[in-house]
Request: fold
Amino acid sequence: MYRYLPIESKAFSPYLGFYQTFGLRVLRTKGNGEEEVMILPDISTDFAFTLRLASLFTTKQLDPFHLLDVLGEFL
Reply:
């Protein structure tokens, strides 16, 4: 089972300066715990959008193998 969580980070652009960005952390249930499968740190500056993606991907159990393709459709 996969669980997608929103994460927050800071990024820098020479045009924008420092800005807050949100990404996704992907965890897979393994035995009694979870292991980190992937982190995508900079998907959007909109937390609500990233939170909705995390919820949708967890509910639908999106395989992380397809994550970049699916994000390409959303963005």
User: Anything to note?
Assistant: The two ends are 25 Å apart (CA to CA). The CA atoms of residues 9 and 21 lie 5 Å apart.
